[in-house]
Hints:
By secondary structure, chain A is an alpha+beta fold.
Amino acid sequence: MDNKVFDIYKQLEEKNVLLSFKGMITSELLTTILQIMESKMDHIDEKPKVKKKVFNILVECLQNLYHHIDQEDFVHVPTEDKSALLMIAKANSEYVITTGNYMKTSDVEPLKGKLDLVNSMDKAELKAYYKQVLSEGSLSSKGTAGLGMIDIARKSGEKLDYNFMPINEITTFFSLAVKIAE
Amino acid sequence: MNMENLTLEGSAKTPTVSFDSENGVLELKGRSIPENSIEFYKPLNDWIDAYAASPKPNTIVDVKLEYFNTSSSKCILDLFKQLEKLNAGNTEVKVNWYFEEDDEDMEEAGEDYQAIIDLPFKMIEVEEI
């Protein structure tokens, strides 16, 4: 056996990762991850205000993964379905929630458009946009409201850091990092 | 006509529901973060529809949520819209929106609803929900 396990450990250690997960995203898993993060934050006596923000943003990030992972068409990955990456790190007083998942390349443009729009807005504009989508939009059959990214940006107060890495014509790997500062 | 109260125990992802037709008090308490909230809120909408047939002169809505997700936010809006219609009929509806000290996000969420919905909102800050 080589040193690769140690390398992974060291990387996670250097990035101050509190929790990381790679695998299938299920409803039960979301419940478990939320419970673990809540007890971790309780354990370190995190400020209630920060705790609430981290929890809220984590809920939306996880539910984005749960609803939007799309890799059925992806030929290079064996039948491991709906797999995604989640990392929660805390360096100094700043939390960073990072997610990574496959998506359809054809869905990249609308998502990028939404992220850029949200990133161009200040606090007041985000509030107005949220209210507009809330009152005019309707829920999809999956129960999604189109409010997730707006809500994440509003609560984070920071710009959303994202990347789209094309894998092939039909599949792209999407990564998102959300900062939560005190 | 006597209608049954709606009582649901809270879970890790759904709030405690206590809709009391005898006293005209509707309470939502805890967290509302299901992946798909439509299924959860449907019986609440149905109950309000039934209550609308013979409501109390005063209806108090106590919203004591610690967390809610964006899927729930739409369902909560629809619930308020139902109550808005009810308010135009033969009951006076009042909403008490509870939030914990320093929870500006939850306070703002209440203000967002207040701006969209034509119902009297009272913002109530408490130490712990």
